[in-house]
Amino acid sequence: MHAIQDHYPAEFAHCYGCGSANPHGLHLKSFIEGERTHARFTPAAMYSGGYPGNVYGGLLASLLDCHGTATAAAFAYRAQGRALGDGGAPIRFVTGSLKVDYKRPTPLGIELLIEGTLRSLEGRKAVIDLTLSADGEVCVTGEMLAVQFVAKA
Ligand SMILES: CCCCCCCCCCCC(=O)SCCNC(=O)CCNC(=O)[C@H](O)C(C)(C)COP(=O)(O)OP(=O)(O)OC[C@H]1O[C@@H](n2cnc3c(N)ncnc32)[C@H](O)[C@@H]1OP(=O)(O)O
Fold first, then answer.
1. Tell me, what's the ipTM?
2. Which residue in 9, 52, 71, 97 could disulfide with 145, CB within 3.0 to 4.6 Å?
3. Domain-by-domain residue ranges, the chain?
4. Which fold has domain 4-148?
């Protein structure tokens, strides 16, 4: 199964968080299933936060960042009745704003589940609700305004 990011054009595949062409990146892969999107990521020990055994908050924000824009793109394709990677003009979103709430420490060394749902899609703006869970417990929530990218002439 192809991830949403697998359909990004090659020239935009350099994102640190999810670009397949960035050898130093996180290579996050997001999938759409029904009314939600999901991605999984297991942070290595190098992503330690300020106290032992927990994940660095900046990494967690990065995971929400990339998963949120992928979620926005996937739902925008759906709203237009299009399939991801259909060969037409790509629909891509960038982050306009991202609010992150850290609800509890996120443990290192286990697989994290990042999920997204579409709250609204109006014009170029998509509002995405995000959660990041470890072992079934929500550790982080996020709210993103993603803005559809339009190439300037
Ligand atoms: C091909 C790429 C592939 C991209 C491939 C995807 C790679 C994965 C991306 C990973 C996620 C990232 O890290 S993305 C990187 C981090 N983000 C960025 O660098 C984005 C930097 N900002 C920008 O480029 C710009 O500000 C934009 C594109 C967000 C918006 O600029 P614009 O295109 O001139 O549009 P603008 O008229 O200003 O805004 C459109 C509408 O959104 C609203 N809006 C804009 N920003 C905000 C905001 N922060 N908070 C509230 N509302 C906002 C405006 O009020 C307006 O509403 P209304 O008047 O219409 O109601």
1. 0.93
2. 97
3. 4-148
4. Thiol Ester Dehydrase; Chain A (3.10.129)
